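Lecture 7 notes: from sequence to structure.

We start with a single chain of 368 residues. Read the sequence below before looking at the structure.
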Amino acid sequence: MMNTVKNGTRPIQKNQVRRINWLRWIVGISTGLFLLYRIILMVIRPTYGPVYWLGFLNTGLIVGGMYSLIAIGYTLVYGVMSLINFAHGDIMMLGCFAGFFTFEFLNYLPSGDSSFLNNHPILSILFAFIMGTGVSMLSGYFLEKLAYRPLRNSKIRLAPLISAVGASIFLETSAQILFGATKKTYKNPDLLARGSGWNIQMDGGMIVITKTGVFSLLMAIILMIALYLFVQKTKLGKSIRAVSQDKMTAQLMGINLDRVTSQTFLISGFLAGASGVMWGIHNGLFNHYVGFLPGIKAFTAAVLGGIGNIPGAMVGGMVLGIVESVGPAFLGIDFQLKDVIAFAILILVLILKPSGLFGKSSGSVEKV
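Now the structure, written as tokens:
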């Protein structure tokens, strides 16, 4: 009888396992040697000075914070439903539009000698976040009710995934029809005018720390800390972790699976909406496709950190943002190819360490 080992429920021959391990070693060693070569080359013949690297790091942290927020939404939904919600980036897009229209309305709302937007900037930003997160929360809630819940017990395993892709296309097309295909520009209050900030002089150049960047990064950090404490300390957070670890036992203990699932989509929608508003405030230009690439990259960040692990999603988003920003300069390629780096990381993680940096592979929202 042929010797086999178990991987899940499917037997895999031992020689197949050996081939997979050899592939991982070859890819890992090749990647390590290439990175070592680039490091030596950068030391011998530096292309950029320290000021440029600090600028890349600054950009990476800002974008990474937004990736982290979106990645947490993927992780929460996966932990509760074992589903990759590929429409999550489009939930972010709806939040971005909601914040945009809120700013537009407040800009035309008279207040004294100016608009409400500029006379009351803090209130305006608060209203934009309330509308952005509110629209995304409701969208996520109804998405779960209409697109995922009817297929929860489907015998076709790919049915929820196909529904997620269809929901993504539906949301993007609907936004294009309702709001037009042309790119729009966020009208920020003067307090967060894009391009304004602080110039830090250094040897060899100057670093520009933008107000929108600082605001986005601080908001991302505050929301990530609040979400982590919420999941660890509150009754709902404990219910989410219980459902993610063992649905049957959680139901026997009196936890309502449907309610917890709906509330999880509300939370993930809140984070997506907040990141959508922050994306618009910081980057300015957007359209109905604004959530597509950030959504896919946030999924990469969730896989990198360990899908189902909230701290892993946070770290994975930050790491991906920094690598995406620093990578082109480090590798000596065009900066327009930064998206290629993100997807190359996804492939390498799936080959070398499918469970991610934090080693979470069971599909549950882990307490760390």
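The mean pLDDT is 85. Keep this in mind for problem set 3.
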